[in-house]
TrEMBL record:
Domain ORC1/DEAH AAA+ ATPase, chain residue ranges per copy: 52-188
GO function terms (MF aspect): ATP hydrolysis activity
A Pfam family that the UniProt record links to this protein: AAA_22
Coiled coil (residue ranges): none
Signal peptide: none
Origin superkingdom: Bacteria
InterPro entries linked to this entry: AAA_22 (IPR049945), P-loop_NTPase (IPR027417)
Name used for this protein in its record: ORC1/DEAH AAA+ ATPase domain-containing protein
Length: 332
């Protein structure tokens, strides 16, 4: 018997968190991704050296960029899409943390390719091994998540070197790779700060995809659809909370981030399931919010009359970002 894990609860939570909600924004991401892959295939078919295209995916934090891209790449890797050389193509992914040097970036990329980098290797040797491993394993693309960490606000020379490295992956004649850079809005600003020639080339090679936060006036039907979709998956009726006041409060409490909305819905449904109820109620969202923020359930955006004045969305997000125990969000 496992005394630390309630297996029934864990399996139920995993079922909800593994769910995929087909957001309309995924269509634009997939469209641009498909164009990059089709362009790659067509050029590879000629047998001549070519440049690959890529994506620059930006948006505010906790909005669901990472999981949307994760899902897309997982589907691509599982598809077994064949390239002109007869081998199934793959993408690899890695997340950047904190400050990265060119050597750090190369070593992390090599590890994503399942090849450990030697600490004694020089940056150019590491990047050469990245090329060899990618070609050997038919890896045609790399997704760098949180790519803003490759840059700083003060290191102009280092930033240019990083941009040159990214550009080299796209333009390497021996084995070009599709590049997906994703991150917060500041990532696009770093690209904009590049010199005119580098900026022109990157604009040409990277297709921009922007993720928007929730605009309740335009998105209220989508928010409701998300809630009912997860409720159906949990076999819990969401009808008791089917009103605009609740959904506006939900969006406000989650700083208008799709990822946070889904996370809170999942947590509330878990609490409801644990209580043996088949109908959702406001109490479960009050409790889920209190547990997530470590706050009293008596002070909640779901019950406060003047919640817009008492709860600032940006400060709520800062609180979550500072929470070392926060878990990933499953927006798709």
């Amino acid at each position: 018997m496992n005394t630390f894990i309630d297996m029934e609860t864990a399996k139920f939570a995993a079922q909800l968190k593994a769910g995929h909600y087909p957001f309309p924004r995924a269509q634009e991401l997939r469209k641009q991704f498909n164009k990059c892959v089709e362009d790659y295939y067509a050029k590879a078919l000629t047998g001549k050296p070519f440049e690959a295209r890529g994506l620059l995916v930006t948006g505010k934090s906790r909005i669901g960029k990472s999981h949307e891209i994760d899902h897309m790449i997982r589907m691509f890797n599982e598809s077994g899409t064949l390239m002109p050389d007869g081998r199934p193509a793959r993408f690899v992914q890695l997340r950047l943390w904190g400050r990265n040097s060119l050597k750090d970036l190369g070593s992390s990329t090599l590890e994503a390719l399942d090849y450990p980098a030697s600490g004694k290797s020089k940056p150019h040797q590491i990047w050469e091994m990245v090329l060899k491993q990618a070609r050997r394993n038919s890896v045609i693309g790399i997704h760098y998540d949180e790519a803003q960490h490759a840059f700083t606000d003060t290191g102009a020379a280092m930033n240019r070197a990083m941009l040159d490295s990214f550009k080299a992956l796209l333009k390497e004649p021996r084995w070009p790779m599709i590049l997906i850079l994703s991150g917060v809005d500041g990532l696009a600003q770093h690209v904009e700060r590049a010199g005119p020639e580098e900026r022109r080339q990157l604009r040409h090679l990277l297709r921009p995809v922007r993720f928007q936060p929730i605009d309740f006036a335009a998105d209220w039907e989508e928010v409701q659809s998300v809630a009912f979709s997860y409720g159906k998956k949990a076999e819990i009726d969401f009808e008791p909370l089917s009103n605009n006041d609740f959904f506006e409060r939900l969006c406000h409490a989650c700083a208008n981030r799709w990822g946070l909305v889904i996370e809170l819905i999942i947590e509330a449904l878990i609490l409801c399931k644990l209580a043996g109820e088949k109908y959702i109620s406001l109490d479960y969202f009050v409790d889920a919010y209190a547990e997530t923020h470590g706050m009293s359930r008596e002070f909640s955006p779901f019950t406060a009359p003047d919640y817009r004045e008492q709860f600032d969305p940006d400060k709520l997000l800062e609180l979550l970002n500072e929470d070392s125990c926060s878990i990933r969000f499953y927006a798709e």
